[in-house]
Specification:
The complex is a heterodimer of chains A (384) and B (402). Helix content of chain A is 34%, strand content 12%. Chain A has helices spanning 6-25, 39-44, 75-81, 99-108, 127-135, 173-180, 209-218, 223-230, 236-250, 271-294, 331-334, 360-368, and strands spanning 28-29, 50-55, 85-92, 142-145, 169-171, 255-259, 302-307, 335-342, 349-351, 355-356. Chain A has a single domain (52-372), classed as 3-Layer(aba) Sandwich (Alkaline Phosphatase, subunit A). In chain A, α3 (75-81) packs parallel to α10 (271-294), α6 packs across α7 and α9 packs parallel to α10 (271-294). In chain A, strands 1, 2, 3, 4, 5, 6, 7, 8, 9 and 10 form a ten-stranded mixed sheet that branches. Chain B is of the alpha/beta class and 402 residues long. Chain B has helices at residues 16-24, 26-30, 37-44, 52-67, 70-76, 78-81, 87-90, 98-111, 115-132, 178-192, 223-237, 244-253, 267-278, 287-302, 320-325, 335-354, 393-401, and strands at 143-148, 168-170, 173-174, 199-203, 215-218, 306-310, 363-368, 374-377, 385-387, 391-392. In chain B, the strands form two sheets. Chain B has an eight-stranded mixed sheet, with helices on both faces. A two-stranded parallel sheet of chain B has the order 3-10. Chain B is globular, with a radius of gyration of 23 Å. Chain B starts with 15 loop residues before the first helix and ends with a helix. Classes of the chains: A alpha/beta (384), B alpha/beta (402). The A-B interface holds A 6, 69, 94-97, 111, 113, 117-118, 189-190, 192-194, 196, 198-201, 265, 267-273, 275-276, 315-316, 318-319, 321-325, 328-330 and B 110-113, 115-116, 119, 161, 233, 237, 242-245, 247, 280-283, 285-286, 288-289, 292-293, 296, 314, 317-322, 324, 334, 336-341, 343-345, 347-348, 351, 355.
């Protein structure tokens, strides 16, 4: 990309997505709608609002998603979800590009600096703490479905003014399956991949008794039912979506956060596996949105937000090795997108004004009615 | 310690050639900022085991730095001087352990949001250096060859999508004895333009043959090294307190002898091969990743005139722990997935080749092994077009190099 500045590259990435979406999906440019007051918001205001966040996990680049050559990998988002959504073409992550620390930053609205490979809580209050403390919600109303053991502390921060007692419950499907399948002769290895970035390392957390209680008391699943269903699934993210759907049915949390991670298999350097994972994640996002429509507690009053935690290195950056990693901090690895759909969101609109990933928490605060007082982000007015 | 405190005696533990070089340039080192110097010393300390192209580049860089006035030094390194480092970093033994310093510096720059400023400073420095140092003319145009898709009977999706805009796509290639013809052509180039580490043959499976004049690296030949490394990793992981950073640091310290290499033939190549596994990601488990990363590193470091890379099927994906435990002697292969991997690998091969001097004159050939599809990029060939001319591989090679 020669002499172009990083800001220019980020703008072009966003603009390319916008042009593509306008051509392919017939979406309108967002500025035309600014200041309007969509009736949909009035209709949904009376019902109890729910928000689901999906991080389009592991980071995916434009070439493999929204650029013309990547369209083939996201048929569900393109054909089913984008026409229903407000699409933000330029979401920048200016923080550390490691998956746990970046997801923690998304969840706090502050660029966290914690050790990406340690099971430590974020320094700043999480969205779950703002939500529960400000609105007086019970613990059952905020849940996180997280991909690996390293994410088990993401539900609750170290903040003195929030912290213990106000966080979300975190469910680790792989840990759950590991506990449930102890002693089993069936091989669940394909569902137990952990951290692709450092596949040798996953912080150990306490053993399975609590997980099995979650299984029986909360998800209303017997060990046998759970393990036999798991045998039909092909990846850790499929397991996560299965658990999320079960949570929606049994607990109906108002704030549900699902972190996908299959795409991070890219760190192994196998391009085919990376693309397969993008296609799977695309399908799973559509399946989850369909589940929202099928659940009476969620249909009509749920806002779904889908965004990657960050991108991956550009082919042209000599400091990286293309899709394999996210180490250079170049514009391609920092510039992503966000899709919002459902309650209170305009359909078929593209916004290409730049927003930051830390704007997510105050924006959801605006939707649900809490104040993300320590967040460094700004509410995205197009979502409010 | 700061660079201006450096003394010649502090390089006593460096290997002989590196020590001599460092002592000769200590005055220049004293003027450089701490945010930059350990990165340079990381190159210098490995000087004895570098390829000739790397040694020449270090010589030229140090020679040029020594020629700069204090004012010029201040100007060249202004961006680096603006970076703020921690006292912990200053107290590290960055003279003798520059790689560890750079690793920790990188983590510190990320957490303090200074990485972008560092990248800008590094890019500006690289641009200045490139402009200041003359590029020697190549004896022959650089040639890259990628052979992909071994073991795939049929494939309907389009290949070479990323490369088509840059060259001519041939869809009527006669592939009989194609690989032999390529290897013959590469050997002939090596004979005509003999250069140490100037002509490479990388194979993701078993090398077809050992050829005089070619630097040959193959996944199969390195199986004992991979076995040793994976065994070492398993042992290390089981150690209490082991984390990813510690493991990475441990791996970076491994030498050829630690992994059972004899070390009596080619020290530079032995170290290069060990680093493929200790610094690469996925090279330990997937042959396609190995071939791609080896190609990248060979181009970056040795700057060869010729590089032939042949991809072989990798093992099918299994749980990462199982892959790393390396217990299955005959794993199931994934030829189709490997073709997709290799197609992207060929694109990266060309990109990495284009980063080297003489890019405007270089050529590239990629062939779907055993099939009639190939693409050639050469200054004399049109771009973004398809040719249905019936031609054998030798003919394509001639087009690429003429």
């Amino acid at each position: 990309m020669g002499d172009i500045s990083p800001r220019e590259i980020a703008w072009r990435l966003g603009r390319t997505r916008r042009e593509f979406l306008r051509d392919a999906a017939g979406m309108a440019l967002g500025t035309a709608f600014m200041g309007a007051s969509p009736l949909v918001r009035a209709a949904t205001a009376k019902k109890k609002r729910k928000v689901i966040v999906i991080t389009f996990g592991g980071g995916a680049r434009d070439q493999e998603t929204f650029a013309p050559e990547g369209q083939i990998n996201i048929p569900h988002m393109l054909g089913e979800l984008i026409p229903q959504s407000s699409f933000f073409t330029q979401v920048t992550n200016n923080g550390i590009l490691g998956h746990y620390v970046a997801t923690a930053s998304l969840a706090t609205g502050v660029y966290e600096t914690l050790n990406n490979f340690s099971a430590v809580p974020p320094d700043h209050p999480t969205i779950f703490e703002y939500f529960r403390k400000d609105l007086g919600r019970p613990v059952s109303d905020a849940w996180v479905v997280a991909p690996s053991n390293g994410f088990n502390r993401i539900g609750e921060s170290d903040s003195r003014s929030y912290g213990p007692g106000f966080g979300a419950r975190v469910i680790l499907p792989k840990h759950l399956l590991s506990a449930a399948s102890t002693g089993s002769k069936v091989d669940y290895g394909h569902l137990l991949h952990d951290n692709y970035e450092t596949p040798l390392y996953a912080p150990e957390i306490a053993g399975g008794e609590f997980e099995l209680q979650q299984l029986e008391k909360i998800l209303k699943l017997s060990v046998d039912d759970f393990t036999s269903h798991a045998r039909t699934l092909s990846s850790p993210d499929e397991l996560s979506v299965f658990i999320a759907r079960r949570l929606m049915k049994e607990e109906s949390p108002s704030l549900l956060w699902i972190t996908m991670h299959d795409i991070d298999v890219a760190h192994s350097g196998a391009f085919s596996l990376y693309v397969d994972a993008i296609r799977r994640t695309d399908r799973l996002c559509a399946e989850l949105w369909k589940a929202v429509q099928d659940e009476p507690e969620y249909a009509g009053n749920t806002t779904l937000l889908i965004l990657p935690d960050f991108g991956r290195d550009a082919d042209q950056d000599s400091g990286g090795n293309g899709f394999q990693h996210h180490r250079t901090g170049d514009p391609a690895s920092r510039t992503t997108w966000m899709m919002a759909m459902g309650a209170g969101v305009r359909q078929g609109v593209v916004y290409d004004n730049p927003v930051q990933s830390i704007d997510l928490v105050p924006s959801i605060g605006g939707m649900l009615g809490f104040s993300a007082s320590q967040s460094q982000g700004k509410p995205i007015r197009e979502l409010l | 310690m700061q660079p201006h405190d450096l003394q010649a005696e502090q390089f006593a533990a460096y290997p002989p050639l590196a020590r001599k070089l460092a002592i000769a340039n200590v005055k220049a080192f004293q003027q450089l900022p701490l945010s930059f110097l350990p990165g340079l010393l990381r190159q210098v300390i490995e000087y004895d085991y570098k390829f000739p192209a790397e040694q020449a580049a270090i010589d030229q860089e140090l020679s040029h730095l020594s020629s700069l006035s204090p004012t010029q030094i201040a100007e060249w390194f202004h961006g680096f001087s603006q970076l703020s480092l921690s006292s912990k970093l200053e107290h590290l033994d960055w003279v003798n352990r520059p790689a560890q310093f750079v690793e920790q510096e990188s983590a510190y720059l990320w957490t303090t949001h200074q990485l972008d400023a560092f990248s800008q400073a590094a890019t500006a420095y690289g641009d200045r250096l490139q402009a200041a140092i003359p590029t020697a003319a190549l004896p022959v145009r650089r040639l890259g060859i990628a052979v992909i898709g071994q073991g795939v009977a049929t494939y309907d999706a389009p290949l070479f999508r990323n490369l088509r805009a840059h060259g001519t796509y041939f869809n009527q290639v006669k592939g009989e004895d194609g690989f032999e013809q390529l290897l013959d052509g590469v050997e002939a180039r090596a004979k005509s333009y003999p250069t140490p580490y100037g002509h490479w043959y990388v194979d993701g499976g078993k090398a077809a043959r050992q050829s005089a004049g070619l630097t040959t690296v193959s996944y199969e030949a390195l199986q004992p090294v991979r076995d040793s490394l994976l065994k070492y990793m398993q042992t290390e992981i089981a150690r209490p307190g082991m984390g990813p950073e510690e493991l990475r640091t441990d791996l970076a310290r491994l030498l050829p002898a630690d992994l059972g290499m004899k070390g009596d033939a080619d020290a530079a190549l032995d170290r290069f091969q060990v680093k493929l596994f200790t610094e690469g990601s996925g090279t330990q488990i997937f042959s396609t990743t190995f071939a791609q990363w080896t190609t990248r590193e060979a181009l970056r470091r040795a700057q060869p005139l010729t590089l032939l890379a042949r991809y072989a099927p990798r093992q099918r994906q299994r749980p990462m722990n199982e892959l790393l435990s390396n217990t299955n002697a005959n794993p199931e292969l994934d030829p189709l997935g490997s073709l997709v991997d290799a197609d992207m690998g060929a694109y990266y091969h060309w990109i990495n080749q284009q980063r080297l001097p003489g890019a405007e004159h270089s050529s590239f050939l990629v062939w779907f092994e055993g099939h009639g599809d190939a693409l050639v990029i050469a200054p004399s060939l049109p771009r973004g077009v398809t040719s249905d001319s019936a031609m054998n591989i030798k003919g394509l090679l001639s087009l690429a190099t003429s």
